[in-house]
Amino acid sequence: MNQAEKERAAKVGKKLNVKAYIKAEIEAIRAQVGDKKVLLAMSGGVDSSVCAVLLHKAIGKNLTCVFVDHGCMRLNEAKEVKKVFKGKFGINLIQIDAEKRFLDKAKGITDPELKRKCIGGEFIRVFEEEAKKLGRIEFLGQGTIYPDIIESGVGGHKAVKAHHNVGGLPKDIGFEGLVEPVKYLYKDEVRKVGTALGIPDFMVQRQPFPGPGLAVRCLGELTKEKLDILRQADFIFRDEMHKAGLDKKAQQFFAINTNVKSVGVKNGARTFGYVIAIRAISTSQFVKAGVVPLPFAFVTKVAEKIATKVKGANRVVWDITPKPPATIEWE
Ligand code: XMP
């Protein structure tokens, strides 16, 4: 057993006992933090959501969560986060609508890596600014989970990839330490803890969503128009997947704005709109992924609905490429 495995065994034992874990973790947070304050960057994802509720149960108002809307969120995402975490749980949550700031910063950038760097860098700046406004906060909360540690090569494991979430946030802005209450849990265990904490199913069972969000699914330059078109198309596809029960067959399913325009016809008039791609993959570890064989009638129904209902989109293609050679995300 290496160090990380030993630490997991000490926290979780052979099989996770959800209730006992929650109780012990709340006590551990209180022991670590005392009456000091914790700042947590919330993304709306499962890991940071579970962290937020655990921290809130442990230290209540001494937790401040910050949700940065970088303008590349999915439809209604910011509203849902607010409703659940501020509304239902009463968590001290600050939402920052930074759409314009991010889009201004990303203006003219078309290279995928530069786009990622731009969004990531700006995210840190916005977060830092907000942290400064809040005054002295001693701890930074983070939704690191066990696979993040393994994939990053910590604890004697060989690095699979430099994980996006590890080291993603500034640690040099004066924090005394990190609080990572789900650090030794696998994803399915985090979900179990989330359910036991009363987080709604649609959030606990959420598919992974990359940090840069729709930026890596909206090819070429980021514009509000292209992102809005993508948001609507993506919502239709995901909604239909849920309604048809196909969401259970895929670990990730989403739409992409290909940045290609094609000619179409709506209500007897010529259109020139974006081509939307849809992608549904099945995978266990996200290192390799297969294409989910969606029923053809379903795919054509979704295509027609997107091309009809979404203004600015008039054609849909289906991405049937496994990983490798393609990656899951398009950028
Ligand atoms: P790829 O595209 O590399 O994606 O096959 C593998 C998995 O990682 C997710 N992904 C990200 N997650 N920040 C994240 O938190 C990112 O920048 C990022 N890029 C890709 C992707 O959605 C898939 O689950």
Output the keywords.
single chain, alpha/beta, GMP Synthetase, Chain A, domain 3, four-stranded mixed β-sheet, 41% helix, globular, binds xanthosine-5'-monophosphate
Describe this structure as you would to a colleague.
- This protein has 331 residues and is α/β, with parallel strands linked by helices.
- The protein folds into 2 domains: 3-204, Rossmann fold (3-Layer(aba) Sandwich), CATH 3.40.50.620; 217-319, GMP Synthetase, Chain A, domain 3 (2-Layer Sandwich), CATH 3.30.300.
- Helix content is 41%, strand content 18%.
- The protein contains 11 helices and 9 strands.
- It has helices at 3-12, 18-33, 46-59, 77-88, 99-106, 112-133, 146-151, 187-196, 201-204, 224-243, 296-309, and strands spanning 38-41, 63-69, 93-97, 139-141, 177-179, 252-266, 269-282, 290-291, 313-318.
- The strands form 2 sheets. It has a 5-stranded parallel sheet, sandwiched between helices. Strands 6, 7, 8 and 9 form a 4-stranded mixed sheet that branches.
- Strand 4 (139-141), helix 7 and strand 5 (177-179) form a beta-alpha-beta unit.
- The model is unreliable at 159-167 (pLDDT under 50).
- It binds xanthosine-5'-monophosphate.
- The site of xanthosine-5'-monophosphate (XMP) has 13 residues, from loops.
